[in-house]
Amino acid sequence: MKTFITVLKNNYLRTKPRIILVAVMTVVALSSTMLAVYLSGLHQVKGRVALVAEDSSYAPTEKSEHLKITVLDKKPPYSALVEQKYDAYVSLDREGNYQIETLRRAEYKDMLLYLLQNPKAEPPKMGTERGVGVNIIGFMMMFLIMMSFSNLFVFADDKELGQLGRIFMAPSSFGGYLAAHVIYCMSLLLPEYILLVILKLSGRNIGFSLLQYAGLIAVTGLLGISIALLLYVLIQKADNATMLGNSIAVLATVLSGSFYSFSKNNELLDNMIKVLPQKELMDFAGYLQNGKGIEHSASIIYVIAFAAVLFILSCKKLRKMYVRKI
């Protein structure tokens, strides 16, 4: 316990020279939360459609306000769908029949057809439609994981400067040392939670309850800490580990659909993405939004187990590198 308190105090003291970096990362994470709340309250366009008509005179004069339709005389290249410049290509023949080509799911295709045929209608609710809470978690996720790398700077510095050997030679607690770093990192995520509390008390719709947010933020934070700790243990240079970790965080969270929910209808790619803990966390947030969190608790258990495995591997590697040498 003494080691835990000493290391925790030392971490906060060593934060002072880096307070600007910590503040910048916190402001970015807070801004992402505010952006998610703002965008969730806006009128959402359900699709960007390239309408290809044999004759422009046959193009519909009345268009749904939920679709952004661009009338073209020829179909754009397939790559425009892959790059998400358009969500769908719609061909219109002289009889007024629509042919829809899209990379998204069949229910999305049905929704587009419904809005094209009924431009004044409200779009049908899709089972994969994201709510405010899922958007907030999605926007926060990448920055919370990246913050774990910047917040573990004390551990990274101790290892790079060769201090860990001296620390573990002393009559100190190995578990207390690591626990202090974990608590320190988690405490720096409090501003994001406090912002959600303020938004909730001000009457804004934030999707989930404060208790649910506490759990989701805690799991995301622990996932980020476990990834950061393992990379710092395996890679000698802290800067190299940070750059690699941030690159992984950005790529994995984007592929997991944290900012934009999409599907490429590619079974192999979908199965590869399914392995990512960020994807499972986003899936669980979606189930929780629909009141089915308990039924699909395996998703959140997978994320916790994934983080636990990485943390255990880091501990074993550290013990092998330092503790057992003594």
From TrEMBL:
Bilayer topology term: Multi-pass membrane protein
One Gene Ontology cellular component annotation held by this UniProt entry: membrane
Domain ABC-2 type transporter transmembrane: 124-315
Subcellular location: Membrane
Keywords: Membrane, Transmembrane, Transmembrane helix
InterPro entries named among the record's database cross-references: ABC2_TM
Main localization of the protein described in the UniProt heading: membrane
Transmembrane segments: 20-39, 132-155, 167-190, 210-234, 241-262, 297-315
GO MF: ABC-type transporter activity
Coiled-coil ranges (or none): none
Protein name per Swiss-Prot or TrEMBL: ABC-2 type transport system permease protein
Source species of the chain: Anaerocolumna xylanovorans DSM 12503
